[in-house]
Structure formats: structure tokens, C-alpha cells
Design brief:
The protein contains nine helices and 14 strands. The strands form two sheets. It has an eight-stranded mixed sheet, sandwiched between helices. A six-stranded mixed sheet has the order 9-8-10-11-12-14, with helices on both faces. It has about 350 residues and is an alpha/beta fold. The relative contact order is 0.17. Strand 5, helix 3 and strand 6 form a beta-alpha-beta unit.
Length: about 350
Amino acid sequence: MRRTSKLTRVAVGVASIALAATACGGTSSENGGGSDGGGDTKGLAIAYDIGGKGDQSFNDAAYAGLQKAQKEFNYKTADIEPTEGETDADKEQRLASLAKQGYNPVIGVGFAYGPAMEAVAKKYPKTTFGIVDSVVEGDNVASLVFAEEQASYLAGVAAAKATKTNTVGFVGGVDIPLIHKFEAGYKQGVQDTSGGKVKVVSQYLTQTAEEGGFSSPDKGKAAAEGQIEKKADVIYQAAGLSGQGVIEAAAKAKVWAIGVDSDQYKQAALANYKQYILTSALKDVGGAVYALAKSVEDGKPLTGTQTFDLKVNGVGLSESNPEFTKIAGLSEAVAKAKEGIIDGSIKVKTE
């Protein structure tokens, strides 16, 4: 039987690291290892999801984990961008190339790497593979999954406490089960906190990722503007790069935005809008990436399903914006909800 576990706090904290400024574009990059900056040791490699490096969210959180591993283990790393309109075969070739070059572990950032990883892992049994947001069976595969619904519930609590119009919004990048978890938790948090008095307006940007739901800030901006017209004064987005458009629209209208995955209040690219980013539903992708790299470095590679939830601080809610603590009852309500989720008295829905 394959091992299923909840990771300990070794994985915690990477998501809170201030991410270095990153640029979009390009196909790959390597950081030198060894004392001369060019050692033969090759370690962690990551292949980005749609939106790539520079999304200030999901992919950049993974990059923070890579940076931590590279610094601590002083080896070569690689991070490779996706291409527009790519197929599973393209992803398979990318993962195989990294494994063939000697990188270990090799991580696919995002559920879209599932079919490709299942095929490649069998061909390279001595390489440890990791996949974020999906479960792939394989003796040498670690499936890094998160309780996104728990962090989203806390975001819903915050939204219910912050709204003045009793209308809040949710913008999902793509209409898929993973993003349904974000919406379900958020709606439940809003309803439980407000007693059903606060309305949630939801919209998904696209039906498939190929249509740009995770990579189109203009789509996110238009959706948020539509929700603001419906009186939404707090909007939570789970939309990758598209979420930047949601935040921009919220800031322009001077209403609250809630970030996702990374602490978006701290992102340099979003500095012009930060005062309107109330909080972010955190997902410690960086911690998961680092934990897998460390396990390989220690000679005890993680495999099986590794679950990151509130109990291990694998998900959470940021409090970086000083305004967070100024809203009456918000901090107390979030703390109480977190306690309830951890002790099991609050069961959070996933759909």
C-alpha cells in the first residue's frame, strides 16, 4: 500500500518568503551549484503551469520553494515555462528531458501534468517526481495536494465581516473541480459567518484552461467589474495570472480584493493595489516543493499523497495588510473558524 501522510512543519513557511521579482517568458533557467557555481550536482527542477513564472501567485510560490532548495543545498536547479497551446505530449517531453539530464526531483506544477507524469515516471524509476494539485499513482511519485477549501472558508469569514453591501464576489479561473473547492469553502465561510445575510456572486472565466482562464488578466478584470456593478465590495479570486486583473479592478473601484496562493499583499508587481488586498488565502506550494526536494536530498524521498492542510499550516490566511485587524470582529472570527476546522467541529465542503 502506498503511503499517505500529512507533512510536518518542515514544509511550512516558504510561502511567506518575500518572492524575488520575476519575469515572464523564456523557456528555462538554471542556477549554478557547487563552490565554483557550475558543479555537476543537479537537484530540483520544476515545470510551470499555465501563466508561468511572474504570476505573483501559484507558479511564483513554487519558484520560492525552488529558490530555498537551491540556496540550502547549493546545487543546480531548473525551471521551465509552459508554451501556448501545448499538449500532454509536450509536457511529457519536458518532464522526460529534465529527468534524462539528471535533475532529481522533477516537479510538475499543476494538475495538467497528470497524464504526462504518469507516463514519464514509469520510464525513469530512479527519479523522484512530484505533482502539485493532483494525485498520480507511482512508486516514485509524490502527489502534493492541499485543503484549499479550508483556506477559502477563512477567506469567506473575512469577506462576510468586511462587506458593507452584503454582497461579495468569487472569480474562478476555470470551471473545474479543483477551483470548485475554492468556491465551496468560500461560500460556506460567508454563509456560516453572516447567517445567510450575505450574497455571493460567482463567475468562472472559462470552461477550459486552454481558453485562458488562468492566464488572462483582462478576463479577470472584466469579471470583477461586472461583480462590482452588482454591488460586490469584496471579491475573492482563484484564477492564477487572471487574478491580477481582479485585483486591479477592485483597487480602481476602491473595494476589497482577496488574493490566493501567495500573500499577494507583498507582491512587488501588485504594489500599486496592495492597500485594497484585504488578505490572501495561502497555499504553501513553496513549502511542498521544498519538502520534496529535502526528502530526496536526505535520501528518504517522499512518495504517495502528501496532504497540506490547516493542521500543518499548509494552508492559511494572511494578515499582512494592517487594515485586516482594524475591521471589527474579523480577526476573532477567523481565529475561531480556524480552531473549529482543526478540531473538526467545522466540516468544510469541497463542492
